[in-house]
Amino acid sequence: xxxxxxxxxxxxxxxxxxxxxxxxxxxxxxxxxxxxxxxxxxxxxxxxxxxxxxxxxxxxxxxxxxxxxxxxxxxxxxxxxxxxxxxxxxxxxxxxxxxxxxxxxxxxxxxxxxxxxxxxxxxxxxxxxxxxxxxxxxxxxxxxxxxxxxxxxxxxxxxxxxxxxxxxxxxxxxxxxxxxxxxxxxxxxxxxxxxxxxxxxxxxxxxxxxxxxxxxxxxxxxxxxxxxxxxxxxxxxxxxxxxxxxxxxxxxxxxxxxxxxxxxxxxxxxxxxxxxxxxxxxxxxxxxxxxxxxxxxxxxxxxxxxxxxxxxxxxxxxxxxxxxxxxxxxxxxxxxxxxxxxxxxxxxxxxxxxxxxxxxxxxxxxxxxxxxxxxxxxxxxxxxx
Length: 385
Ligand SMILES: Nc1ncnc2c1ncn2[C@@H]1O[C@H](COP(=O)(O)OP(=O)(O)OP(=O)(O)O)[C@@H](O)[C@H]1O
Ligand SMILES: [Mg+2]
Hints:
By secondary structure, this protein is an alpha/beta fold. Helix content is about 45%, strand content about 20%. It is built from 16 helices and 16 strands. The chain has helices at about 10-15, 25-35, 40-55, 70-85, 115-130, 135-140, 165-180, 215-225, 255, 260-265, 270-275, 285-295, 300-310, 320-330, 340-355, 375-385; strands spanning about 60-65, 95-100, 105, 110, 145-150, 155-160, 160, 180-190, 195-200, 205-210, 235-240, 245-250, 280, 315-320, 360-365, 370-375. A hairpin with a 5-residue loop joins strand 11 (about 235-240) and strand 12 (about 245-250). Helix 2 packs across helix 3 (about 40-55) and helix 13 runs parallel beside helix 15 (about 340-355). The longest helix is centred in the first third of the chain and has 16 residues, at about 40-55. Magnesium ion binds near residues 72, 73 and 149.
């Protein structure tokens, strides 16, 4: 049995594990790779950390660094999907995504772990249903996966100035990641009666996934690498465009040059960084990957339009060159990553979706129903290429 909604070659061959000894990092990797494209290196690290967390053997905390729209939140969402689709992972289903700035009170300069635990509690209650027993609730909360987004905004230095609240957050989080017992006030069933309880939540068995774009980090490392005497060299590659031209590009990929010290210089506290099992750098997405995301990702704008046009009995198809042109246009908007696909796709499809049969593009199929092909010509016209 493959994973529901996600028929991929590897997962279709490999059965869904029913016991922990059937689970492997490779299986986790292939399950995630169906929804997260072009980030294989990063996903290998994610798979290893998740394996550690799921088996409860070692802490699997992760720091995800990547430009906007490269897949950080997508990775978190697909971990959540796995937890929900695989019955074996039920004890891990209390997963929450929270913004770093919500975990600190900037007036009092205090770390507020109970805000994080409240978010975890909500998820745990959603899994357990009405009125869980105190012990059940505690057990699920203690195995939570906590995603903290925008940790980069909580640097110790922001725009050249000290940012004390950032240090407060990092210190607070690192203590939780090490394992702390936090008294948590809530209501739960004790001997069949609902009562106010204080659960001593031990955070040692939780998984922490922190993510951020770390914008200034790219320039910072680029400057280090290209400064005279750095001894480093940027790589050049030949790129063939959809229209058949070849150009040489010198690209800077953060992952090629990154060292942990760069994060300290950025303003992250060394002890905080030391709590992560892995620091994972996501690639900027290439034209090839953007094209794949458009054509294959489960939640891509194309898939949505396909579903929509199916309501009118229209099969939507995309010419290969048309997809490549859209991917190239998305790559030119380098700051938004795969998010750019949505806008580009919208420019082409919005008028068609409003009045499919009035677009002049719908053809009847001999076997019944209709088809609509997005051609390279249509893309060029819509995008003014
Ligand atoms: N590697 C990827 N594989 C598949 N889809 C992707 C990938 N990266 C981005 N996407 C798509 O692009 C959209 C934005 O991606 P996502 O939310 O993961 O970005 P992010 O890295 O969290 O960016 P931000 O720093 O702005 O939060 C998502 O809807 C997702 O479908
Ligand atoms: Mg995000």
